[in-house]
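tool_log.txt
---
The assistant was asked to compare two proteins side by side. It first ran the structure predictor on the initial sequence, then on the second. Raw inputs and outputs are pasted verbatim so the downstream comparison step can read them without reformatting.
(1)
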Amino acid sequence: MIVKEDNPVLEEKKEKSSESSKTKSKTKASSTKRGKKLSTVEGIKFSKEHNLLEDNIYIIFVECESPGNVGFLARVMANFGLKNLVLINPCKLKDESFYQAMHAKSIVENAVKSATYPTLKDFFKTQEINFIVGTTGTPGGSYNLSRIPIKPQELVKSMNLNSKIAILFGREGNGLSNEEINMCDIIVSIPTDPSYPIMNVSHAAAIICYELFKNKNEFPVEGLEEASNIEKELLLKDMDEIIKELNIPTHKEKTALKSFKNIINRAFITGREAHTLKGILRRILMKFK
């Protein structure tokens, strides 16, 4: 017969081993939960503005020259909850576009299948856009009214996501043309070091998209609806009539009207404000007649 004697040292080792095993099991379970929490959006509540951000913002890449930048841009968009990528007369897209997009391949695929157009005008014919934002690395001074910019944070603080908004990014080499800039309601530029002012398109997009995303809970949704395109056009029409009554040189008429348009768009006036301002302009016109 073999008699097993109690061994205090052995028993202590068994207890430590058992405790260690339990601790590892708990740690693993905790780690799994943490991993699940970080890798999914389960339990995260997004604001109503988050859906508006996804549905109403269009990122438009005009005549891209590098297929890889399309992928990088799509990846940035996915980082900040955007999905509407539009390509205008792009270069031939290769596998690199999808490879660089990583987990945002679907954004590139959707753009290739259903959101590629030969010109900006073709896109605007198919999609009703209420507000057009241009981006530039070469802002103009006080004499180049079309290129007077605002900073990204100034754009997003007053932006109304109830409207459809297009943000234009230009060619890697030359950016947006003057004609394309003139189509925009407002211009955004990112301050950079003068020794190397031009940013890669995906880097610039990341800064602007970040500003959009971080302020999504601050966007005015109710009660402060931005003036519609029609309301703004009627204001411009009235101001144009007033300017023509002043008998100033033709080139100054154009400058005056462009200045007024810049002020209206930069101020993000509400529908109520547009209605009030229109009444004032009408009364001024009546004084001339």
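(2)
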Amino acid sequence: MFDNLVESSSHKEDIARKGSFIGVTFLIYTVLCVAFFVAGIYWYDARLGDMELELTTLVAPVPVPQAERQPEKQQEAKPQKVEQNVDVRKELVADVAESRLPPKEISAKASDVPPVRRGVTTVIGSSDSNAAAPMPAGPGTGTGIVGAPAKVQIADEPPPPEAPKPTPPRAPISGGVLNGKAINLPKPAYPPIARAARAAGTVVVQVLIDENGNVVSAHAVSGHPLLQGAAVGAARQAKFSPTKLSGQPVKVTGVIQYNFVSQ
């Protein structure tokens, strides 16, 4: 029954009407857009004369020639001649009229060294020359002769004394059984729990004694466990005389024995 379908004429007319409507609408919008674009161009041309435009010209900068710097000539420092104000002599030769400076030796040949001038300061040097601007000798009865400066030797400072080296601590020495060496050896209390258990026997406590004779450490090494605590507590309260080795007090390690008798 549905093999042959026939499209109605009303449906075709509806499609044709919608297509023509869309085509006409697109054409109208296209015409309006073109009209606005052309109108905008004409309007801009009409307003172009009223606008204030400033013409800007880009001009390349003119290179300015740099002034040639003339190298400054460094004026060489000319050594200034220092005028000598004292007489220089290889040796001091007194004038014949000067009696205060006797000659070293008498000779018939004249000395090549000129004599010392009176009233002018004279120093001993490696050549003979007279002062261009003589410096007068100071007041007094001297001859105005200046000797060469004495060479003073300054001894080096002695090295600082070495700091005394600290004496390394010595290892504790063994004292064995220390019961007879104690100044004060308190007796341990008998613990009630050990009394109830009828615990007895000898407890050996290892102790370390410092240079002043005080017990610094103690621990039990043998004995009944119920009695070790009381023995260690009594050992810590023991007091010994200091032990010395080569005149120096040393630490001592040893044992203290405590005998517990059951009651």
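---
observation on (2): The first strand starts at residue 87 and ends at 89. The chain is about 20% helix and 20% strand.
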